[in-house]
Description:
This protein is α+β, with helices and mostly antiparallel strands.
Amino acid sequence: xxxxxxxxFSHKEEAKALGAKWDRTKKIWxxxxxxxxxxxxxxxxxxxxxxxxAPYIYLVLGKRECxxxxxxxxxxxxxxxxxxxxxxxxxxxxxxxxxxxxxxxxTANDNALAIVPAxxxxxxxxxxxxxxxxxxxxxxxxxSKAPSLGNTCTSCDAPQGSRYLFEExxxxxxxxxxxxxxxxxxxxxxxxxxxxxxxxRTDFDQALFTWARDHHAEFHKxxxxxxxx
Length: 229
């Protein structure tokens, strides 16, 4: 009996070199019957490959009706873990300064999760992933200003602004009740570090942290880049 594998795209050549085969119909890698699956252990389904002590963020994916074409589109935000009872970081969040931008967040001891619309710099692999999953891409380019990254409609390409996604009662990321959480997808991404202080916090962040911890998927690899807010 064959053993099916969960092989990220970036690992396919390595798995193939070890003898994994590609099922074109099911679109899945597998170990043929009679072949020892031990060398493929890192790709066995159900294996928790996360490191609890590693710095991390969440990619948060939701759905929203486009304001322009009225078709449903996928949209993205970022989940930043933090310690809700850290008085020093709370003070910096209310009075941000240059030094606060480089405070390292100890995500191993966090107990809350803030949802933010943007990062100071989005690593290339996250950018590529979100571009494939939703309409997250450079927007707003003008002759006098470089484009920034943001959500656009996957059908008509119209920008989906932060107010539309975060501040209206029907916004997917306006989280004030647990009833909205099952509609969101959380992807945990291990990174080299998380630096800064979330500027936006709510009383719901601790409940959000617990939900994301218990309902998330893992990004296909650990990133060697840090995340700056």
